[in-house]
Structure formats: structure tokens, C-alpha cells
Amino acid sequence: MNASAYADERLPRYTSYPTAPQFHEMDGALYASWLSSLAQGTPTSLYLHVPFCRSMCWYCGCHTTVALRDGPIVDYLATLRGEIALVAEALSAPLDVRHVHFGGGTPTILEPADFVALVTLLRQRFPIHPDAEIAVEIDPRRLEPPMTAALAAAGVNRASLGVQSFDPVVQKAINRIQSVEQTAAVTTGLRNAGIAAVSFDLIYGLPKQTLQSCLDTVEQCLSMRPDRFSIFGYAHVPEFKKHQRRIATADLPDGEARHEQAELMAHLLTEAGYVRIGLDHFALPDDPMARALSEGRLRRNFQGYTTDPCEALIGFGASAIGKLPQGYIQNEVVIGRYAERIADSALPTRRGYRLTPEDRLRAELIERMMCDLTVDIDAICTQHAVDARVLAPSRRKLDQLAQEGLIAFDGSRVLLPENARLLVRKVASVFDAHLNQQQRQYSRAV
Q1: What's the per-residue H, E or C state across the chain?
Q2: How much is the pLDDT for 421?
Q3: Which of 70, 273, 310, 341, CA to CA, is 20 to 30 A from 259?
């Protein structure tokens, strides 16, 4: 198998299927009808997007903007509360909220009292289960003790800390200076406040990154013993993210170097006792994600790998994406347009996608491949009552990958060997009926 032959391909991360580039224009009236059709007690997740940061990290691929003043944040918070009210009014019956996730941007850019009030509003508008996971993404450079206390008071029980790299040379190249001591203090503060579940995000493939800097960063992180790690490959798409143009292409490692960095970091974590999960996650053996993997319950959503089995995901905020049984919904991306829609008492829906039976089949094939590194094609076709002949082009592609040694077959089951784990997106992509290899917004396969 020649992994380098696939490493530089541009492929989706498959946090959804179809992927966001396939979404099309959709209006709020259709979204409202989908919301109203949710049955009482439907297991539901809520995602709230806060698209502001105090400074821009040059590697960032998120929908966010720099806010040096608090005014725009206060205005946005008022708009977000308005959207929460509109969605709650569109529902015809109470739901059963099992997961709440705050993403960004930097969700903790809100004032502590405002964050607590926002969660209180969610509890008033939606029945949040007593055992619900309430998670927040955190920039350790911006978290002060009053906000830590507010997170605990609001019931947050999982925190995801952005680390990326502790190498000072890399940090300078990506405009993100963050010390080990700063990160350790935040981690300790969260745990002392009762927020025991802590995850770290790292990135490989960054400018000026080396194997030694990857090794050093992982060892420094291990001294803090987070419950989970996510290790993502940097996606360099300066044609879509203008701030990435500050990163010199010549400073980026090539596909072979990226592969070596990813595998070194994975080796260090598994040697330290973490379970390797799918493409890019690692968890301690007693973590719920590790248990979900062993029990075949691992899922995939817009936050990556998850234990969340909820049937509905409702997204709030500019650019937020949700998923209901009928399909996907995305809000207006531009904050001003998002605010205008809410001011008009209209759901801020911009785009979406209605799923077909074939989409659902392909989505499950892709999800199981991404989660389990294996998938039984015939079993899933039978489960979905879809004629397996619709997958004829996919099967031809799989045969080619088998000839090249990337996969193996056991009857109708596709098997990805451990040494090809990082290429799971390549295998999953054979089930993607929409994929256009010319779409440069996707990241490299490794």
C-alpha cells in the first residue's frame, strides 16, 4: 500500500452526509414545519455558536470574527435569545434535551453572568435532562476564575480546551501564544470547580511543526492527563479563509511529514494508555467515548466523534447547522443578516438539505466506516430496504482500493487495516455520491 498516493487528496471530514457544500437554499417556513413535527420527548441536542474571538489564530477554519469591544457580543447575545424564543415557539411538544454544546469562536467570551443567564433561558425553554452533557469549547488564554465559576454554576460538565501546539516557534507562526503553565492552571481550575471531564485539541501539519515539537507537546499535555484528545490535521484553504494567507505555504509540512506527525502523536497517546478512536480521537479506557466504541455506539456529528445518539440536533447562532429527521438546516452565516432575520421575527434559515432514502443509506455506510473502520454493505442495504445495485459505482471503487492494498473484504464487509487508519476518509468517500474532487474547500486526506 502506498499511503502517499492518497495523502494529498482533498476530502470531506464527513461530520455529515451529504456535506455542507451540497446544501441549497431553504426558507424558515420549511424549518418551522420540521420543528413542529418533532414528537414529544424526542431525544435532542442543542448547539449554540458564538462567533467571536479576541484575536484571530491564523490556522482557524471556523466561522468567527475578532471583537475587541463587547458591544457586538452583547448585541449578538440578544439576537441569540431571540432565536431561542422563535425555535421554542415553533415546537408543538416538549423535547428531551440530552446534550448541549457551546462552540465558536470563543463561547467564554461572554460575561459570566450572561453565560449563566443564557443556560437558564435554555432550561426554561427546553426540558434539559438532569444527566445531560453540557459542554463548552474554551480558549485557555481567555478563561478567568469568575468564568470558570460561572461554567460550574450553569451546570457545564465537559470542557474542550484548544491547545494546538506548545512549540513557541509554531505558536508564533499561527499567531497563538499559549504557555503550558497557563493551560495547566485552567485545567486545574476547571477540575477544582467540579468540571472533571476535560478534552484537549491538538493539530498536526502546522507551519514550522516538527516531529520533535509534536512529541514535546504531547508529553506536556500528558502531564495534565485530560480524559480525551482530538488530533486534527491542519486544513490550509487560504482561498476560503483569508487570514490563512499569513501562513507561508513553504512553512507547511508535506503529506509524508504530516503522516509521520499524526502517527507519532497517536503512538505516544496509545502508549500512555489512551484508546485510539476512529480517525482522530483518543480517550481513557473508562471514558464514555471509549465505551461507546467498544459497544458499537460511536457516532459522528459536527463536533466530530461523539457519544450523542439524539435524533434531533438544533443549531442556534450565525452559521449554526442542525439536523432533524427530515434533513439538515443551516442558519445565515453573516452575523448582520442573521440578526436582521431574527429582528423580523423569522427563523434565520439560509440553506439546508432534505434527505432521501439513498442519502440515509450512504450516510450510515460512511458513519460506520468512519467510526468502526469497517462496514457490512449488504447488511446496511438490507436494513434500509435499498437495492444494493445503487452502490455499483462504489463497489467498483472499493475493488480498486482492494487491488491497491488499502482495504480488504470479508464477504460483504469492508475492512480497513490498522496501518491505513489515517486514510479512512478515502475509503468513506467511495460511498459519497456527491463528491467533486475539484472542491478545494476540503482538507487533505492526511
Answers
A1: CCCHHHHCCEECCCCCCCCHHHCEECCHHHHHHHHHCCCCCCEEEEEEEECEECCCCCCCCCCCEECCCCHHHHHHHHHHHHHHHHHHHHCCCCCEEEEEEEEECCHHHCCHHHHHHHHHHHHHHCCEEEEEEEEEEECHHHCCHHHHHHHHHCCCCEEEEEEECCCHHHHHHHCCCCCHHHHHHHHHHHHHCCCCEEEEEEEECCCCCCHHHHHHHHHHHHCCCCCEEEEEECCCCCCCCHHHHHCCHHHCCCHHHHHHHHHHHHHHHHHCCCEEECCCEEECCCCHHHHHHHCCCCEEECCEEECCCCCEEEEECCCCEEEECCEEEEECCCHHHHHHHHHCCCCCEEEEEECCHHHHHHHHHHHHHHHHCEEEHHHHHHHHCCCHHHHHHHHHHHHHHHHCCCCEEECCEEECCHHHHHHHHHHHHHHCCCCCCCCCCCEECC
A2: 93
A3: 273
pLDDT at 62: 85
The whole-angstrom separation of Cα 181 and Cα 158 is 21
**pLDDT mean over 50-56:** 94
Give the least confident one: 107-116, 153-162, 415-424: 415-424
Contact 378, 388 (CB under 8 A): yes
More confident residue, 304 or 315: 315
Cβ neighbors of 112 (< 8 A, separation 6 or more) are 146, 147, 149, 150
Residue type, 371: C
pLDDT at 46 over 90: yes
How far is residue 222 from each of residues 14, 77, 166, measured CA to CA in Å? 28, 36, 12
